[in-house]
User: What shape does this take?
Amino acid sequence: MTQKVTVPSIKAMKEKGEKITMLTAYDTPFARILDQAGVDILLVGDSAGSVVAGYPNTLPVTIDEMIYHTRAVIKGVQRAFVVIDMPFMSYQISIEDAKRNAGRMIKESGAEAVKLEGGVNMKEVIRAIVDIDIPVMGHIGLTPQSIHQMGGHKVQGKVEEQKQKIIADAVAVEEAGAFSVVMECIPTELAQEITEQLSIPTIGIGAGIHCDGQVLVIHDLLGLMGDFRPKFVKSYVNLQQVISQAVEEYMDEVRKKKFPTEEQSFHL
Assistant: This one.
């Protein structure tokens, strides 16, 4: 078995200049494939709400749903580091609430770290969770749980005021003790500036080439989301088309009595 990915090994990758790979996973089969392929970090994202459950955004996702998906992912993993997203309102109410929920999510899911959104406004929350020895991954820039406040999924940090806020958020996340930070939908130049300033790894999604690592939603990478394709997404295969062709072939064979054959049949 290849050596297990850990918080220290993730931090060491930045120091060595090795790029970190991260993808989302929501079930055992995909987790097993990604783990065996050598992906460093598997994020059980609250994006499960949009990608798997069909919600309009991530806001309806519950702690129980996150635990369910993460338990499934853990069963397929041997090497990768597994991070679980803390869903909307699981950490914003109070520090005690945040600690209790983070602890429950780690205890019941088997994940090795939690991820939460926010910078300066969540500094004390991050610090409190880290203080009870739960690793925290931050998330700044476009934060999907703030979609209504931000007015939709828009690039953040294009104007000076936003830029300074994002830099302050990044510094706050590091000072609070997070072991890494996701930066979503911010200009490449800003992401480079932050990556060079921080000692913890930066993971980009729509943040350009200069981050210490990259993350994509696995369904986007595999072309399973139809025509929906944000600018920062690259689909490496069109699995939707492949699956559709397979299903059409199956239906055709059933209707023409070509399936099942003797090979798929049992006899007395």
Observations:
- The CA atoms of residues 148 and 226 lie 24 Å apart.
